[in-house]
Specification:
By secondary structure, the protein is mainly β. It has three helices and 22 strands. The protein has a single domain, classed as Neuraminidase, CATH 2.120.10. Strands 1, 7, 8, 9, 11, 12, 13, 14 and 15 form a nine-stranded mixed beta sheet that branches.
Length: 329
């Protein structure tokens, strides 16, 4: 078993033990943090049943044998009906465009190494009426990195190309955006892009909090649109979420709904008004949505029209990675 697999196994063992003890623990927080407690999460799931989604339906399996450990998923806006996926640390510095049956249509090679790519998003950027891909090099299992990166580039189009195709992006085509947390180093596996261009980082574990006696609280950090494109941007904690080991998330294309998942639960928020911000929304109690646990399942993404959400598993014990869809009812 690889070092990376050992880390994942250790983290998942911790996750299940921490989850079991969560009801016995009282979580402390900084005075300026807004915390959603586990009891309010459960209450919200019972009381705020505002969305109804069907059980999962398998659409296909990932055909590319190189895609063993998918850690991020985002639906393409430029290439309708396709999704972007990628792997994390120790894998090539590339992303893949696949269809819902798992067939690779394009491979995009980026110039910088995959230190630990943990999520991917598609959203707006500096040029109007243009879609951008955001690749989050934000994994930090050993808390060894003081600066994390987000790679941003104009979403490639496969229109008119012979498929499958390979596209090599130059240094000039990819922006490397630098970020550092104001309160110290964090591990993170979730990046979401709001419709106004804000970037949201949801941390997976926090310094001093990765103990069973004090279960991990996910932190909500935001880089407001207009962040620096050169130099290091400072990320300040806005609030805390009592979601253990968040592994992926997505904001809907209309900016009204949010999904965040961990290894066994999908959490859902919906704005109560058009003026409510994502930062404000994430201080409220979420609803839990249908989800069947997958082998190493970390990735989640909205269908572009909001009619449902996708998840994808990893390859485990020679069982192919599957693509699942949960339709809105």
């Amino acid at each position: 078993m690889s070092t990376r697999s050992n880390k994942r196994s250790t983290m998942k063992k911790f996750f299940y033990l921490a989850s079991a003890l969560l009801g016995l623990s009282t979580l402390s927080c900084q005075p300026d943090e807004a915390v959603v407690t586990e009891s309010s999460v459960n209450a919200g799931a019972r009381v705020s049943a505002t969305a109804n989604f069907a059980a999962r339906r398998q659409l296909g399996t990932v055909k590319d044998g190189n895609l063993n450990e998918i850690s991020g998923l985002a639906m393409s806006r430029t290439n309708s009906g396709y999704m972007w996926v990628h792997e994390d640390s120790g894998n090539p510095n590339r992303i893949y465009l696949i269809d819902s049956q798992g067939t690779t249509k394009a491979t995009i090679n980026l110039p910088d190494a995959n230190r630990d790519w943990e999520d991917i998003a598609v959203g707006r950027g500096p040029q109007p009426n243009t879609w951008y891909v955001y690749v989050a090099d934000v994994g930090n299992n050993n808390l060894s990195n003081s600066v994390v990166y987000v790679y941003r580039f104009v979403e490639p189009s496969i229109t008119g190309k012979s498929l499958p195709t390979t596209i090599n992006l130059s240094n000039s085509a990819v922006e490397k955006l630098d970020f550092a947390y104001a309160d110290g180093r964090h591990n993170c596996e979730t990046l979401m892009v709001d419709t106004n261009g804000d970037l949201y980082f949801i941390t997976k574990e926090d310094n001093g909090e990765n103990k069973v006696s004090n279960p991990v609280k996910g932190g909500v950090y935001r880089a407001a649109a207009g962040y620096k494109e050169s130099g290091t941007n400072t990320l300040t904690r806005l609030s805390s979420l009592n979601i253990l080991t968040a592994t992926g998330g997505d904001i809907s294309n209309n900016g009204q709904e949010v999904l965040i998942k961990n290894y066994n639960t999908v959490y859902y928020w919906k704005k109560s008004s058009s003026s409510q911000t994502i930062a404000q929304l994430l201080t409220t109690a979420p609803q839990t949505l249908p989800y069947t646990e997958e082998p190493g399942g970390e990735a989640i993404g909205w269908k572009v029209d909001g009619a449902g959400y996708y998840t994808v598993s990893e390859i485990k014990n020679n069982v192919p990675a599957a693509i699942y869809y949960y339709a809105r009812q």
